[in-house]
Amino acid sequence: MIVLNAPNFTVALQQEYVTIRHCAEENFIWNEWRGAIPSQQLREAMFFSCEFIIAHNIEFILADFSKMNAPAFEDQVWIANRSAAILQHSKLKRVANVLAMDIFEQLAIESIYEMASEIPLPCQYRDFISEQDALEWLVAPQHAHSEAPEIV
User: Fold this and answer.
1) Which helix (H) or strand (E) holds 103?
2) Among candidates 65, 62, 135, which has minimal Cα distance to 105?
């Protein structure tokens, strides 16, 4: 059962621009991205996140981009290429992205997924404006025998 801000989350990475929390029992991470992230820090944090997903057999991600500025196009290309190459080998099932109302941020995230789609990923993903809607989709049964985490 997933409860955001609950003690079953440990902080995997805490930096000025990003916080990555991990719930080992549910194979779940919750990423919060903030501000205008310099290219080097963005790439390092994205690489860390991808490697963490592989190392810990993460199946579910809540990626909150609602407070992040849209990355530069060069960073979008880098993220799409590097992330897809790593995550194609993951156990990911679902990724829920929480986006700001800012159309430029929405287009940037959409662009990353579109570029990454050249490499087949093992998961479904969807974009949301509401964190609650994202969580509800993330934990909804995929089919009758799903083992999606439960939130309260």
Assistant:
1) helix 103-116
2) 65
Per-residue model confidence as pLDDT tens digits over 41-78: 999 999 999 999 999 999 999 999 999 998 999 998 89
Which bin fits 137, alpha (ψ -120 to 50), beta or left (φ > 0)?
A: alpha
Pairing of strands 60-68, 28-35: parallel
Nearest residue to 110 (alpha-carbon basis) of 76, 136, 133: 76
**How many Å apart are CA 6 and CA 94, to the nearest integer?**
21
| Distance separating alpha carbons of residues 79 and 146, to the nearest angstrom | 30
Write down the pTM of the prediction: 0.81
Stated length of the chain: 152
* Owner of token pair 């099932």: 93
Which CATH entry fits the domain spanning 10-139: 3.40.50.10600, 3.40.50.150, 2.30.110.10, 3.40.640.10?
A: 3.40.50.10600
Strand-strand pairing, 94-98 and 18-23:
unpaired
